[in-house]
Specification:
alpha+beta, two-stranded antiparallel sheet, 2 helices
């Protein structure tokens, strides 16, 4: 997740001929990014990325975003 915008940095859907071989890849690293192989049918809908640790600024940006949303909701009553 890009911390300033909240946009996912990337994901891919890959169609393979042999599901077992694809799943045996499991997970790994590609450069500085970690990847995980899962069956799309077994993946729950989610907007979170449990393996993403973020950068040194993520906490600050997320806190500011939450505070802004809270203020907007509070003022809407």
């Amino acid at each position: 997740i890009e911390c300033q915008t909240g946009v996912p940095l990337g994901f891919a859907f890959v169609d393979v001929d042999d599901n077992e071989k694809a799943l045996n890849l499991g997970c790994g690293n590609m450069g500085e990014c970690r990847f995980r192989v899962v069956m799309a049918l077994d993946q729950m809908e989610s907007s979170t990325f449990p393996d993403f640790l973020g950068c040194q600024y993520c906490g600050t940006f997320l806190l500011q975003r939450r505070q802004k949303r809270w203020r907007l909701r509070r003022n809407s009553f």
